[in-house]
Amino acid sequence: MATTAECRSALDRLSDNLAGADGDVRSAASLDRSLSCHIKDLDVTFTGRLAGGRIQVLDTVEGPPAEKAEIRLAMTGDDLVALVNGELNFAKAWGSGRVRLEAGFRDLLKLRSLL
Q: How far from chain centre, in Å, is Cα 57?
């Protein structure tokens, strides 16, 4: 099982990947939205912002997020690490329910290029 530190490191790597992306991915990552990522097996939530093409983690809290972020992710720590390492396909994980992504309709349309 991935640790909180490994999950935080995975989010940092994901942020670096988004910052270096081109085309549609870069456009999708350029949204300015509040973001939460709940790690279900650790019952911890990383909160922050997707802004300037990067994920900025601002806080780590125990349990589910206290406030509803504009973009919400939920998954296990192992799935987060596997996604960032390219070992798990996001679209398949989302379709099977392993990863939960919630956002407004317009944001989902824009984020689909990340899939």
A: 10
